[in-house]
Structures are given as structure tokens and as C-alpha cells.
Amino acid sequence: MSPTSETLTAERILEVTEEVLRRHGPAKATVVDVARALGVSHGSVYRHFRTKAELRGAVTKRWLDRTSEALAGIAAAERDPQARLRDWLASLFDAKRRKSGDDPELFATYMVLTAEAGEVVGEHIADLTAQLTRIIRDGVAAGVFASPDPAAGARAVFQATGHFHDPGYAPEWTRPGIEEEFAALVDLVVRGLRA
């Protein structure tokens, strides 16, 4: 049974769009391909997403939000801020490596899409730095971090660790010694924040 416009949801469209992107790549995937895969007219897709760019931005946001949501629990946990910071950075690195290594074709597709979706990427980075700000602020309140401006400290930590989460560095994430380099940088960051 093919879906009707009443049962067609934005989430279902995004799921299918991801599959279409995986199959055809960002250059060849069209809204018509998505509609065909859903068994609906392309007008049904446009009722949920007004333009192809809006659909591509939404699927990119959904992909980035998976990482943000996983990290949010670490940021909000009521435990030692130093351990939370270490766990948060390690989880971010692991999430990015999994995305690049588990499905390289889809990762390459999202590299193209994130380049198109600057606003979505900016919101993602703002969310991640807000999570870091919370950890650092909690560390200051607990007396374990010394940071006169936790938000500025969070931006500095995010930028300093970029080699381990910026997708532009993905080819380096599997080379020998990367784990040791990551651990050394995290140690340096934590020592730099200590009160």
C-alpha cells in the first residue's frame, strides 16, 4: 500500500531522502527520486518541504542532530566536570569517526550538504559550544575549572580540538597514533582549564 498525503510525515520523507542520497549522491538525487521512493507525487514532498534546498537542509540538520543529542546527555550529567569534558570530547571524536568510517559514501554526501547548509552547520556548532559552555560553567562553579568567561573557553576548546571533529580532517582519523594525539590534546585542554 502506498502512503497517502495524510500518512506521509516529514520524518519519513527525511528517512527516504537519506536513502536516495546514499544511492544517487547529492549531485543526482532529486525530489522526484524521493517522491518515487515514497510512492507519492513530488507535490506531496513539497507540502512538507517547500524547496529542494529546504529538504536538503532538513536532512543535514537531522544528521547533525544525532551527534548533538548523544552529547547533550553527557553535558547535562550531574558528575565531575573534568570527567564530563573528557567524555564529551571523546564521544564527539568517536561519533565523527563512526560517521566517516561506517558509511563513507553517505559521509561524503553529507560533506557536500553541510557545505551548502551553512546556517544549519552554524546552529550545530552553536549547540555543541553551548554544551561545552555548560560543562565549563559547572566546572567553575565546582571550583575545578578557572575560566572568567565559560562561553569563550568553550569556543576555544571547540576550536583547539577541531582536528578531532572537523570533517575536513576525517582522512587522518584512522592513522596510527591518532588516539595518543587525541589523549594528549585532551590532557592539555583539561590542565589549561583547571583552577
Q: How are the elements arranged and paired?
A:
Layout: H1 10-24, H2 31-38, H3 42-48, H4 52-76, H5 81-102, H6 104-116, H7 118-142, H8 150-160, H9 178-193
Helix pairs in contact: 1-2, 1-4, 2-3, 4-5, 4-6, 4-7, 5-6, 5-7, 5-9, 7-8
What is the molecular shape? elongated
Strand-and-helix sequence, N→C?
HHHHHHHHH
| Number of helical stretches of at least 4 residues | 9
Helix content: over 70%
Give the uncertain stretches in residue-range form: 1-6
Give the terminus-to-terminus CA distance: 63 Å
Strands, total number: 0
Main beta-sheet annotation: none
Overall average residue pLDDT? 91
Radius of gyration: 20 Å
Keywords for this entry:
195 residues; 9 helices; disordered N terminus
Describe the structure.
There is one protein chain. By secondary structure, the chain is mainly α. 73% of the residues lie in helices and 0% in strands. It contains 9 helices and no strands. The protein has helices at residues 10-24, 31-38, 42-48, 52-76, 81-102, 104-116, 118-142, 150-160, 178-193. Helix 1 crosses helix 4, helix 5 (81-102) packs antiparallel against helix 9 and helix 7 packs across helix 8 (150-160). The longest helix is centred in the N-terminal third of the chain and has 25 residues, at 52-76. It starts with 9 loop residues before the first helix and ends with a helix. The model is unreliable at 1-6 (pLDDT under 50).
